[in-house]
Amino acid sequence: MVYMIKYNAMIGNDDGINSIGLDILVSNAEKYFKPNIVAPIHQNTGKGKSMTFNKPIRILDHKTRSNYSGKAYDGSPADGLFVHNFFYDKPDLVLSGINSGENTSIHSILTSGTVGLALEAGLQNIPSFAFSMDVPEIYFFKDDFPGELNKFAEIGVKIAKLLYDELSKASWERLLLVNINFPDTFSKNIKIEVVKPDNYKYVNYLRENKDPSGDPYYWLWGDKKETFDTQKDSYKIYNDKSITISPISFSDTSDIESKIKDLINTKLML
Predict the structure, then answer these.
(1) 112 with 48: CB under 8 angstroms?
(2) How far apart are CA 124 and CA 173, in angstroms?
(3) How is the chain split into domains, by residue range?
(4) CA distances from 120 to 9, 109, 129, 167, 227 (A)
(5) Helical axes 20-29 vs 149-166, angle rounded to 10°
(6) Alpha helices per DSSP H over the chain
(7) Strand 69-73 relative to strand 59-63: parallel, antiparallel, unpaired?
């Protein structure tokens, strides 16, 4: 009898332990990995790779919405790796997501807490993956969001398993993370494309409003750009409705991108 070794995977996010994206990612990841769930107790969108030094971090045992056992804490997404390593052995890999809202473009990659967790792992030489999905703006910061989450999670986990197994140790030492984004719709003929990230996708600004006392308050928001580079991740997600894979590194990753394209075309079984 042949037994498949299950690698230890930390699974976290920035939307919080009650997010449906986290829950469905765990349910698919447990087919290939031994998951340890460590996620913020509250929504932590936009925290990037920030870390909590100015207050205590409270940690409690917590169930996900499908009754998976995990640890919930009141810190940033990147804090989660340190919480994980306090209670469990260092993970073989980190899976972060599935985020409510796509994280295409360098601007979003540097802002996202989902990516921030994966980035912290990559800086500690742990192979890591960030998963995000395009959703309507009304579902930003929500525990529930629509779409073919289960199908995308199944594909995303298979990609993670393939790249974890097949990319060389030298490749992983050069990579910070692999950023994977899903479009808002799924089709049987969906393409998986290895692309570089755009520079930015939103034009950000402050909105001014009045509170009930008539005093002004301000909300940071952004409008999506009207045009995008046709060869980069934002265009592929919004216009082509493709799944995008973007290796993120401080160095040139052209050779790794070529290797990933070859693996996707020859070894990915969907």
Answers:
(1) yes
(2) 9
(3) 7-199+229-266
(4) 15, 13, 11, 20, 31
(5) 50
(6) 20-29, 79-87, 106-111, 113-123, 149-166, 169-174, 233-238, 254-266
(7) antiparallel
CA-to-CA distance for 103 and 134, rounded, in angstroms? Answer: 8
List per-residue pLDDT tens for the chain, 270 residues long.
444 568 999 999 999 999 999 999 999 999 999 999 999 999 999 999 999 999 999 999 999 999 999 999 999 999 999 999 999 999 999 999 999 999 999 999 999 999 999 999 999 999 999 999 999 887 777 777 777 899 999 999 999 999 999 999 999 999 999 999 999 999 999 999 999 999 989 899 999 999 999 999 999 988 889 899 999 999 999 999 999 999 999 999 999 999 999 999 999 988
Can you read off the two tokens belonging to residue 122? Answer: 């990559």
Cα dihedral 36, 249, 195, 260, rounded to 10, equals -70
DSSP 54: S
Residue that is written with structure tokens 């939103």 in the block: 202
Q: Is 148 exposed, middle or buried (0-12, 13-18, 19+ CB in 10 A)?
A: middle
User: Could you tell me the CATH superfamily of domain 7-199+229-266?
Assistant: Survival protein SurE-like phosphatase/nucleotidase (3.40.1210.10)
Q: Output the six-digit token pair for 269.
A: 């079984």
